[in-house]
Amino acid sequence: MLILVLISPTLSGCSGPVSENGSVQQYEHWLPAVEERSGMEYRNDDVFSRVSINGTFDTGEVQSIFVPVPSISASDGGAGFTGGAEVHLGLWLPQKEGCDLTLFEVLEECKVPVIAEIGPYYDDGDVDALTPANRLGRFLIENYVQHGYGVAQVSVFGTGQSNHCMDLMGHDEQAGIKAAVDWLGSQPWSNGRVGAIGKSYDGSTPWNAAASGSDYLATIVPMSGLIGVHDLMWRNGSMEARGAIMHNGVYGSFGLDGDSGDIENACEGYVEGYYAGPAAYLTGDNLAWTGSDYWEERHFLSRALEIYNGSIYIIHGLQDWNVDPHMAFPAHQMSIDAGFDVKGLYGQWAHDYPDRDGDAGHASLSSGRGGEAYPYTLRWDWADDMLEWFDFYLMNKGPKPRLVAEV
């Protein structure tokens, strides 16, 4: 059973302009309303969903891009000592007939928006940033470049080919994310609109991007993402044991590979992590009483709601006990109350994407923990749903998506 929680009853994905007599004119939209999609036939022979309408553009060769981050200074340590901090990304652009995206001046009709997947796993537990990742990148590239979107796979600081240090969602990492988004939005071939999407750590970087103040970030799609590190692991005066070692014990190792670049991990946030994790474990709070801002720096939601100027599409499995659903609620309602366009997609799956028929999040659930809902939890229409969302918020094309919570 699909439950739609209508955030605003006046919004509809198939309503058109208002006529002279005040009635709403209806027109046919390529994507039916979600409650009418049960009769549609979707491909289910791949590891992810596919758009039901093919695009017209070929995919260009991947580009390897290093984006300088001049805001990282000597006081930050790491690559700030040399003034050469940079983040690395792989970029795929559509090939449009009659368009040369290498020119300094690109025709308006040739410009493209970019969908960015930002995280620590490229070349650190997964393929490098220049190879479409089965995690999400291949889904984005194969579904949306053909429809005129660029796709970027971005490595955060201290991972992949990005230098500096693993900052575990701190201000240094935020500066690198902002630099990547700003670069993608300011290129001659860009239409100036960037979307950030991802799951888990990569679902937290969209919130971090929203808190960065980039003028180019137009939409975020956090899936099982953190609104703040302390918010996830510390609640009711106690904490999860993993919280003490997440920075230096888990993700900090990503930047250590035995070469001369390892010294760049000697940065402010990385050093602070050695005491901030264990101390918070012992006290159960964010250490503000000691004068430390380590954990406050790693809370994104409040600042994002203050300065972000874009739309929000939150996706979360209600049986996710890795990144618990309290990262989506009450953030969903808080975002609405702050005046944002907000949509939610929630269901009985675990720490996974809405459309993955694998052992991680849908098929793995036991009886009483969502297993009864499988395989009806799988959203093979998700690629279409995201295309509709991106079309409106990144291309200003098509009707406005219905701002509902699908459960």
Short description:
The chain has 407 residues and is of the alpha/beta class. Helices cover 23% and strands 19% of the residues.
Description:
With 407 residues, the chain is of the alpha/beta class. It has one domain: Rossmann fold (3-Layer(aba) Sandwich), CATH 3.40.50.1820. The protein is built from ten helices and 16 strands. It has helices at residues 137-144, 171-186, 201-210, 229-233, 246-250, 268-283, 294-297, 301-307, 331-337, 382-395, and strands at residues 4-6, 15-18, 24-26, 58-59, 63-68, 86-92, 94-95, 112-119, 150-155, 190-199, 217-223, 234-235, 238-239, 311-317, 342-347, 404-406. Strands 1-16-15-14-11-10-8-9-6-5 form a ten-stranded mixed sheet, with helices on both faces. Strands 2-3 form a two-stranded antiparallel sheet. A two-stranded antiparallel ribbon has the order 4-7. α3 (201-210) packs across α8. It is globular, with a radius of gyration of 21 Å. The chain starts with a strand and ends with a strand. Residues 6-27 have low confidence and may be disordered.
Q: What's the CATH superfamily, by name?
A: Alpha/Beta hydrolase fold, catalytic domain
CATH class: Alpha Beta
| Total E-strand runs | 16
Report the average pLDDT across residues: 88
Q: Please identify the structural class as seen in this structure.
A: alpha/beta
Could you tell me how far the N terminus lies from the C terminus, measured between alpha carbons in angstroms? 8 Å
Strand content: 15-25%
How many distinct domains?
1
Number of helices: 10
What kind of sheet is the major sheet?
10 strands, mixed
The SSE order reads EEEEEEEEHEHEHEHEEHHHHEHEHE
Specify the overall morphology. Answer: globular
Helix percent reads: 10-25%
Q: Which regions contain 5 or more consecutive residues with pLDDT less than 50?
A: 6-27
Spatial sequence of strands, sheet with the most strands: 1-16-15-14-11-10-8-9-6-5
Rg for CA atoms = 21 Å
Kindly report the CATH topology: Rossmann fold
The assigned CATH architecture is 3-Layer(aba) Sandwich
